[in-house]
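Handout, page 2. Input:
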Amino acid sequence: MRHRKAGKRLNRDSSHRKSMMRNMSVSLIRHEIIKTTLEKAKTLRRFVEPIINSSKEKSSSNYRYAIKMLKNKKVVLKLFERISEMIGKRNGGYTRIIKCGYRKGDNANMAYIEIIDRKK
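Output:
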């Protein structure tokens, strides 16, 4: 039984899930929009929004937290310089998930996940 177990497992073990979320977060911050499956997008939202929220206040502890979670200094700099200014005074909901049909091979639900207020 799965009582009181939060989060989706996505048919991966914990280390694979963690590295996948880290890589997808780096791609999302770098490109500001990515295409993935709907379930991965929903899981990514729960992973990346606290990191974006911490970037609103520029302190050394928040900077260290973002580096610990993302492991990429260039992306962290972009997060603290550009993306924190884009989201401004928004109180949450930094990402948007847009459904975009089904994948041809296995008919999986696909979706775009993007950062709100990005430059188009």
